[in-house]
Design brief:
- Helix content is 33%, strand content 15%.
- The protein has an eight-stranded mixed beta sheet.
- The chain has 337 residues and is an alpha/beta fold.
- The chain has one domain: Alpha/Beta hydrolase fold, catalytic domain (Rossmann fold, 3-Layer(aba) Sandwich).
- The longest helix has 20 residues.
- The chain has twelve helices and eight strands.
- Helix 1 crosses helix 11 and helix 6 runs antiparallel to helix 7.
- 48% of the residues are buried.
């Protein structure tokens, strides 16, 4: 099966900031009832949407899922607004406000409007997972796959250098706020090998949250939303249809152990998110995969090892055999922070 690829501009909620997006649409409508869901991919911090193209094409061409990629404001092709007000406000854009509650819901509602007969599933990568519970349009979302959704507290780094760098991150951001901004007024994250340049507000959120084990829920309004996230649903191990699943890897350079993942999942106690935690060398070697880390899930080489086993969950909320084995007994939401 083939799919069309259409570059779009979608206006963010509230302030209509133009978001560069790419929609992958299957050329044939499947006969299944209900049809496969449409999928929204929330990127990691400072990662352009082009990074996710292989995964999007796979879902659209092989499993008939429309997939929408987008660049948050200040990232990739979403670098300039359409008004002077947009340009002035861009450096101050934050994770918790503009990315989570302006940009993200606009993508959700676009999919809901374009494909009203299909459920919406969010695949959130890293910060793309962290913002998912804050989505004002989350009532239109049926399921969530969280990829590498670690708590970024500095103590969870696997090595001293990473821990020290993360601990000093707020100071680095403070200096970068005053000197060395990009022409758009962004924080030069690329200059320190972190990611693409990002809005100063994003850098401030990220660096501030890393100081706390509570991570983003150190903000009272975020904690309130996280506490209620999926409180009305059944996501227990015996549920016939699961609403959430997280996946993480032992070789993630941002995580010294699975505790970094558990520490984020515990922030949403009502959701009871199961974690499929894998050792790539031990569990994926038969597929020719020895490393995944924080970014590798979306590489084309992961098709057989990781993408295919997750299709049943993405399409209808079922855990296939490998995923089901991997998440057995993996609910650790009662542990203390």
């Amino acid at each position: 099966m083939s799919a069309t690829e259409e570059n779009l501009t979608i206006l963010a909620a509230v302030d209509s900031f133009p978001l560069a997006s790419t929609l992958f649409t299957p050329t044939k409508t499947p006969s299944s009832t209900p049809p496969p869901p449409s999928i929204q991919i929330n990127s990691a911090t400072g990662v352009p949407r082009a990074f996710y193209v292989s995964f999007a094409r796979y879902l659209a061409t092989t499993h008939s899922c429309p997939v929408l990629l987008y660049d948050y404001r200040g990232i990739g092709d979403s670098l300039t607004g359409s008004t002077p007000e947009h340009a002035r406000a861009l450096p101050l854009a934050s994770i918790q406000k503009e990315w989570a509650t302006y940009d993200q819901p606009a993508i959700t509602m676009f999919l809901k409007d374009r494909f009203p007969d299909r459920a919406v599933v969010i695949v959130g990568h890293s910060v793309g997972a962290h913002i998912a519970p804050l989505n004002p349009a989350k009532d239109s979302v049926s399921r969530y796959l969280f990829v590498a959704p670690n708590n970024a507290h500095w103590r969870f780094h696997p090595d001293l250098k990473g821990a020290i760098s993360t601990y000093l991150f707020p100071a680095i951001v403070a200096v970068g706020t005053r000197v060395g901004r990009s022409p758009q007024g962004l924080f030069r994250a690329n200059a320190i090998g972190l990611c693409e340049d990002i809005p100063l507000g994003v850098a401030r959120d990220w660096s501030y949250w890393t100081r706390f084990r509570e991570y983003c829920t150190v903000e009272p309004h975020i904690k309130e939303v996280y506490d209620r996230f999926l409180a009305d649903g059944d996501n227990t191990p015996n549920a016939e249809e699961h609403r959430t699943l997280a996946i993480g890897f032992t070789d993630d350079a941002f995580c010294g152990s699975r505790e970094a993942y558990d520490a984020w999942l515990r922030l949403m106690p009502a959701a009871k998110v199961p974690l499929w935690y894998l050792d790539p060398k031990a569990e994926l070697g038969e597929f020719g995969v020895e490393a995944v880390a924080h970014m590798g899930f979306f590489r084309k080489a992961m098709k057989e090892a990781l993408w295919e086993p997750l299709v049943p969950f993405l399409v209808d909320g079922r855990f296939g055999e490998r995923v089901g084995r991997g998440v057995q007994g993996e609910f650790r939401v009662k542990a203390k922070l």
